[in-house]
Structure formats: structure tokens, C-alpha cells
Amino acid sequence: MRKIYTIITCLAAVIVVLDQWTKQIALNHLQVVGQTMDFLSWWKWTLVHNHGIVFGILNPPPPWLPEILAKTVLFILPFVVLGFVWWAYVKHFKDNEIFRPITVGLILGGAMGNIIDRLRFGYVVDFVDWFYPSASGKCIPLFYSQGANTCHWPVFNLADAAVSTALVLVTIEMFFLQDKYAEPKEKSQ
Predict the structure, then answer these.
(1) Residues spanned by the domain of 24
(2) 181 domain residue, yes or no
(3) Which of 19, 117, 129, 160 is an active site residue?
């Protein structure tokens, strides 16, 4: 079990350091919310202060939700998710597993990176803006139209990418690797 905790801790630490470093680079180059900097033909850096949750949901919070309640929920939510992941996932690890500790390390690092932002700024710093051109202005699911005939993925950061990658890995495990970690069945005589 010690090896599993070492994998989780080391990976989470690397994610937190890289996340905070890339956010600081973005903040050094983008001082105003909405300011953009071209990176590639399909990728810009666009500074966004995300006061909501993933994909900008609840950003800004709805007017019927008191601000203090919204901030409290958004601060506590990552801890609840981490607690659930620990309870449902980590306590069932086996000593020979590598795949599951990697997914938990990604989730932990991503959650901690965004929690640090909420403590420092009161919001999460997002800056990675992926997009593609659309002559019709119609976008594929999960992308949204943002004028000038472009379709954008919600602006994100490295912590978000780590958590999203972990969710993809969990899905892969559920559908393709579930037998690998299953308890051996007893042979009937």
C-alpha cells in the first residue's frame, strides 16, 4: 500500500506544481479578464476568472443564490469529491495496482490546484482556449459558438485537464480493464 500512496502523492504534487506554474505564466502575460494571446491556429490563451465549477457552470452564480453560499459550496465541493473518491475508490486498491493510483493522483492534483486558486484569488484561473472555425456557426456538442464563426471548448487550465484525463482513464478501466483487478474466482469441483 505504501507504493500506492507514494504514486498518488508524487503525481498530485507534480500536477499542483505544473498547474500553478502555468497559471502564473498566464497571469504574467494576460493581465485583463478576456485578454487573449495567440498560441496556435486552434489554440489561444484567454484569461478567465472562473467563479463557478467545471466548464464555467455557475459562472457567475445565479442571482437567487446568495454569494456567500455559492462561495462556500464551491470551496467545499472539491473536498466532498475527494472524500467520495477516497471512500469509493482508494480503499479498494490492491498492492499491485498502478492504473488506479495514477487516476487518483490526477484527481487529487487537479482538485488541489484549483483549491489553491480559490484560496489565493477567490476564483479559479482558466486560460487554455481551444477552438475551431465553423462557417455555419453551428458547433459540435460540448463546444459553444463565440462569434466570428468559431466554436470554443470552455476555457480550462492544467488542473482541469488532469481531472478530465482521470475521468477518461476511469472510464477506460470500467469498460476495458475491470477484469484485470477482479478477485480470482474459486474453482468448483
Answers:
(1) 2-176
(2) no
(3) 160
